[in-house]
Design brief:
By secondary structure, the chain is an alpha+beta fold. It is built from ten helices and seven strands.
Length: about 250
């Protein structure tokens, strides 16, 4: 199998106070079976051997679950493959000689801490404001014994697939977090354990979202298009309905 050579343009920023800049690198000996993060690992190995500072980027599970592999690739959050996180994006989606531009999420509420790493603790604070239930849900057998309509259960599961990566924010021109918040509000409000606190929950979470400086939704659907779990914007409609009725 022939190896590829790619021309990378990577955002480098020492810390939150640094102005930052784009830096060019060559990615050599890249094969099509590598993930995007494995390609960056190879580039970093070469930088370390040269005594240069490696490119900082977030990663953990590398299985499309944790949501930490947040970066914009050629202008698209998580890259060109629909419904795919950066860590699950493979290099066969690129061609030998391609130029690949890699940047961090761009949002006021997600300040860059170093290179491609951003501080997404704003999402944590929104969850802390109300993304939980206080009722005693009992053990697993009790939960399974509680009748829930299949339509509601399926919708709740669709919303619960949100991994909190922030691609919706990065894709939105207003840096709106409404897809994230709507998913978290909906998956609890659709289940009987979360119904009791649903009015208080939506008020608190929307207030926290606004406080963090996220923008509002203008219904252009970039968030749904960029979401690696393909969460529907219909949940934003549900969020607005829950908020108005609260």
């Amino acid at each position: 199998m022939d190896s590829m050579k790619l021309h990378l343009k990577v955002w480098r920023q020492k810390d939150k106070n640094d102005k930052g800049r784009m830096v060019s690198y060559e990615a050599n000996n890249v094969n099509e079976h590598m993930s995007f993060l494995e390609m960056l690992d190879v580039v970093n190995d070469d930088l370390i051997k040269k005594g240069d500072d490696p490119i900082a980027f977030d990663h953990d599970c590398r299985e499309g679950i944790c949501g930490s592999c947040s970066m914009v690739i050629n202008g698209v959050p998580h890259g060109p493959e629909k419904g795919t996180t950066t860590c699950q994006l493979h290099m066969r989606k690129f061609k030998d000689g391609d130029t690949v531009v890699i940047e961090p999420w761009r949002a006021k509420a997600f300040p860059v801490t170093k290179d491609l790493v951003v501080d997404r603790s704003a999402f944590d604070r929104i969850i802390q404001a109300g993304g939980y239930v206080n009722v005693n849900t009992g053990g697993a057998p009790d939960g399974n014994a509680l009748p829930i309509p299949k339509v509601d259960a399926d919708l709740a599961m669709d919303a619960a697939t949100c991994i909190g990566c922030g691609a919706c924010v990065a894709a939105c021109k207003n840096a709106s977090a409404m897809l994230f918040v709507s998913a978290k509000v909906s998956h609890l409000a659709l289940l009987p354990q979360g119904v009791v606190e649903k009015k208080e929950r939506v008020r608190k979470m929307v207030k926290a979202m606004d406080k963090e400086g996220f923008g509002n939704c203008t219904n252009q659907y970039e968030c749904e298009a960029a979401c690696p779990k393909e969460i529907s914007v219909n949940f934003i409609t549900r969020l607005n309905k829950e908020y108005i009725s609260s």
